[in-house]
Specification:
disordered N terminus, 12% strand, alpha/beta, 8-stranded mixed beta sheet
């Protein structure tokens, strides 16, 4: 191993320290973060990035992103909530608050009808803005007559995200030669390979039981039911409070992705209720991806995507011709990739499921339009290639790697780490 790679026990200690970063107070400052993967893309913390070491210039960008803001994958949550509240209205037991909620649900559902999983207007804007910032940040590279290889998953929302991203770049530089594609042939380089089925671990079942307990406790609907119905005992005869609460949570969180409707349901919940539901969803995502020690390593389904990123970078380096690679995928792809790359935001998973959110919070990793950018730099007369990692356009780090030029890393070290870590 290269001397720049930290011994495992030190790496893990640093990882935990680097990622124990999310508190309840932090979530309360932006309560929409409780939407987890529904969280609408936040603009980067700063436009200005750390300058590269003297003489180094960007020559290649490897971008891997999630589609932009979307409608819910299906409208079952709308249907469930509307049907129950409408029935209560007919029985004359819907409160004034319930009437207001039902009206907003009907407005939202009318807009979402037959748009299951579609990219929203906000989702299109997000990708145009990310592309615009990429052009401005790396103008010396993107102002050239470059070739751009863009591929997306065969999902409509991913294809439209790719189109909006590429169209913005084309507007900024008409001389760009952009090739876009969305083919089943390339899916193993774009999304996780679900045919890979890592052996389930006994610990995963224990974790799932703990996560389920957190999730169920969070869906205590007593207060919510009392706010929506004037006769809770009667409403309970045909309304499952827990199911209604889950449906309303999902609708309320997704409405942030269609801001032009100018309606919100987030205030029907208390901050504590939102926080508690969020911790359950957060743990569920991390367990599903295998980011918790001892859980089923489903992140290995993304191994071929990682290998493609490494091999493509090597090819570009050897070819010596500046270019850009763009990939547009899903939250279930970006999350495991961030872990495979060793990004600090995805590290530090703990078996303490109750406090898992303090170490990893997925709203920081996979909001709508989430993206990972690897920016490659070279210096004339030198074979030492540098690379910088951006997560959601913010500079980040790989705690398991040492570097003498942070936030830049030597590609030789990064490549060795990625290859040896996942052999």
């Amino acid at each position: 191993m290269n001397h720049r790679i930290i011994p495992l026990f030190i790496s893990l200690a640093m990882t935990v320290a680097a990622t124990a970063q999310t508190s309840k107070e932090e979530i309360y400052k932006d309560i929409y973060r409780t939407g987890s993967n529904y969280f609408a893309y936040p603009k980067p913390k700063t436009q200005k990035l750390t300058m590269a070491p003297k003489g180094y210039e960007p020559f290649y960008i490897s971008h891997y992103g999630r589609h932009g803001s979307r409608y819910m994958s299906n409208n079952d949550y709308y249907v469930t909530a509307i049907n129950k509240l409408d029935s209560a209205r007919q029985f004359g037991i819907l409160s004034a608050r319930g009437e207001d909620v039902l009206t907003k649900l009907q407005i939202g559902y009318a807009d979402a009808w037959n748009r299951d999983g579609d990219l929203s207007k906000l989702g299109a804007r997000q990708h145009r803005e990310i592309a615009h910032r990429m052009y401005e940040r790396f103008h010396e590279l993107l102002s050239q007559p470059l070739q751009i290889d863009a591929k997306s998953s065969t999902s409509r929302r991913c294809m439209l995200s790719m189109f909006n991203f590429c169209q913005e770049l084309q507007i900024m530089n008409p001389n760009l030669e952009i090739a876009m594609d969305a083919s089943k042939r390339d899916m193993k380089y774009v999304v996780e390979d679900l045919s890979i089925k890592p052996k389930a671990t006994a610990q995963s079942e224990t974790y799932e039981q703990q996560r389920s307990a957190i999730f169920e406790r969070a869906h205590n609907s007593d207060r919510l039911m009392a706010s929506l119905f004037t006769d809770v005992p009667r409403a309970s005869l045909f309304v499952d409070g827990r199911m209604l609460m889950e449906a309303l949570y999902n609708v309320a969180e997704d409405l942030q992705n269609v801001p032009e409707l100018n309606i919100s349901l987030i205030d029907i919940f208390t901050k504590d209720e939102l926080f508690n539901m969020w911790t359950g969803y957060n743990a569920g995502w991390l367990l599903s991806a295998g980011l918790i020690p001892g859980s089923t390593p489903n992140y290995l389904q993304q191994k071929e995507v990682l290998d493609s990123i490494v091999s493509t970078a090597d090819h570009v380096i050897q070819a010596g011709k500046p270019c850009i690679t763009l990939r547009f995928s899903h939250d279930s792809s970006v999350l495991p990739l961030s872990f495979l790359l060793g990004l600090k935001e995805a590290m530090g998973g703990t078996s303490d499921i109750e406090n898992l959110y303090k170490h990893i919070s997925i709203d920081k990793i996979i909001p709508m339009a989430a993206n990972i950018q690897l920016i490659f730099y070279r210096k004339k007369g030198s074979d030492d290639i540098l690379v910088k990692f951006l997560l959601n356009e913010n500079e980040t780090s790989v705690p398991a790697l040492k570097t003498n030029c942070a936030p830049y890393y030597h590609w030789s070290d990064v490549k060795e780490y990625l290859i040896t870590k996942h052999e």
